[in-house]
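dude i think i finally got it to work??
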Amino acid sequence: MRWYRNLIAQKWDYSDRATRRGRPPLTQETVDMVLDLLEENPTWGDDSISNRCANVGIEVSPSSVRAIRHRYGIPPAPERQKTGDWARFIQATWPGLAAMDFTTVETLDPETNELTTLYVLFAMRVATREVHLVGITEHPNKAWMLQQARKLTDDFDGFFRDVTHCTIDNDRIFSKAFTAVLKDRGVKCVRTCVRTPNMNAHVERFMLTFTSEAMRWVVPRGEWHLRGVVREFLAYFHEERNHQGLGSAIIQPGPGVGRGEGEIRCRTRLGGALRYYPSGGGATFMRPTGLIGGRHEEAPVSIALTGA
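look at this
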């Protein structure tokens, strides 16, 4: 008798004539907009998201926002505020963000030929990629670190004069007393997570550049020699090296950069390990042609450019 019951059900089935009840479904464009607002504004709740959508003529109820959150596994505003990502912190503090880190260099004593480990502390303004040699020491104790903190925040020539935040790692060298001195001068130190160098990626990348482009070619003969190497490399880093993070620009370009005119000549640093090719300006930079008697012979580059 099943066929008989199905026949009666088909007779009284008017589902094809029924109109859809309830709210119309949200378009994918509306859902994408809600997701963007949720991602970019962790402090906004469901009501706030609904009101912001209404400001641009899109009707989305708070319950619809809540349903979208549940569908995509997004927590409510109080939970999103607790789990803010590192990228958002970097973006919010970018203009006044700095970073600091140590590197170690083994120097060879010129008299005894014994190795001595020196600690080199660098600081960087992340937005501009400017790097400052904070100090070099064999013993980075508490007194030395406090002195460097005072120098960094000096009112006249401190490298941290306009800095609001500074990222540091969890090394015990960065003691509570050190961070307290910076905090008193308006610089909040933010520690990275353990074993996460990517959270301090900008200064870590500088350390790699310093090691691979300068220190691999030099055997430093004491602290005075190391200071000279660092000084030469920082001049090259700021005035002659292109930086991909800045759109392949030079941090402090000279007058001949991008002119495309005059004679191209090579300027060298660290005995030819670092090279730069400026043009124009009447400069008398020379190119090294070889090592003779422990020194570089230099000759001009035979290339000439004419202005367009």
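Confidence is low (pLDDT under 50) at residues 281-308.
im so relieved honestly
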